[in-house]
Write a structure and sequence with these properties.
With about 260 residues, the protein is an alpha+beta fold. The protein is built from 7 helices and 11 strands. It has helices at about 5-20, 40-45, 120-130, 140-145, 155-160, 170-180, 190-210; strands spanning about 25-30, 35, 55, 60-65, 70-75, 80-85, 95-100, 105-110, 115-120, 245, 250-255. It is elongated. The protein binds a DNA duplex (14 and 14 nucleotides) through helix 6.
DNA sequence: ATAGGTGTTTCTTT
DNA sequence: AAAAGAAACACCTA
């Protein structure tokens, strides 16, 4: 599930659950989610420390400790949960951080496509160098700079994390639909006015989604109609049947009337 | 029982 | 050279 709004929600979960509290014990129940570090060193390096700054960039969450930094990526199914240390763990709880005051932060992940990295600050900085500007923080000028000079399709550009960090499949479709731009428009063909509208819409969609800690499946948004049965739900704006297809390697929904096809 | 999913990487093809 | 496409990763649901 996690796109920028979900990860921002996890940042708040981590802050409320763990910030400032001593990490008493790290229990790795499935080492399959650890990358570049084993269970032993993860525990040894974190136990006795506390989480300090909690930084989100795109879909990455970085938890600083004053020593090593824990880098979380949630893949498709990862999440953070705050529980009581005595609560029975969930089947998909892969790593448990027991904190002072009997709280327990849990990395829960069904599919284990990503997980946790442990890095020194220089390495954490290098990770962020490979990411484009955060979609929630990017200025209009940097947004323009990211999109100009691209030759591919618009949806591929919006979901390319090295160009702009944080947008996933749902957000890209929602933003394009609200902007009335077809996912297959070539990025370079946008007028200045269209880019301005795209930027404004992206900010509005992100603001609403961050408040909900997800892309909300609202009836008056495209997202509310993705899982409609075969014939395709009507566009909430004009009633035309929504189309589904493939773009940037992912299932993509759009309204053939509101989002005119290029060519 | 096969397909597909709010993600990314890597390899191959255009 | 850049971009699109397909497969792989792991697991569950329809």
């Amino acid at each position: 599930m996690p796109e920028l709004p979900d990860v921002e929600g996890f940042r708040k979960v981590l802050a409320g659950c763990a910030r400032g509290r001593t990490i008493e014990q790290v229990d790795v129940r499935d080492a399959g989610v650890l990358h570049g570090v084993g269970a032993g060193r993860l525990s040894r390096d974190l136990e006795g420390r506390r989480f300090t700054e909690l930084e989100r960039h795109g879909k990455w969450l970085l938890a600083h400790t004053g020593g090593p930094t824990v880098q979380f990526h949630f893949g498709m199914t990862g999440r953070l949960v705050c529980a009581h240390a005595d609560d029975a763990p969930h089947a998909h709880d892969r790593v448990l951080f027991t904190l002072a005051g009997s709280r327990q932060l849990r990395y829960r992940d069904q599919r284990k496509l990503k997980g946790l990295w442990l890095a020194g600050d220089p390495e954490a900085a290098r990770l962020l160098d490979e990411q484009g500007p955060d979609a929630l923080a990017v200025s209009r000028a940097d947004f323009d700079a990211a999109l100009t000079g691209r030759r591919g399709r618009l949806k591929a550009a919006l979901t390319d994390q090295s160009l702009l960090a944080g947008l996933g499949n749902l957000l890209a479709d929602e933003i394009l639909w609200q902007s009335r731009l077809h996912p297959s428009r070539s990025t370079g063909s946008l007028t200045d006015g269209e880019r301005a509208e795209l930027y404004r819409t992206m900010r509005r969609v992100l603001r609403t989604s961050v408040r909900a800690a997800q892309v909300p499946p609202r009836d008056d948004w495209l997202t509310g109609h993705r899982d409609a049965p075969d014939p395709g739900a009507p566009c909430p704006r004009c009633g035309t049947r929504l189309r589904a297809g493939r773009a940037a390697g992912r299932t993509t929904y759009w309204c053939p009337h509101c989002q005119p096809a290029p060519d």
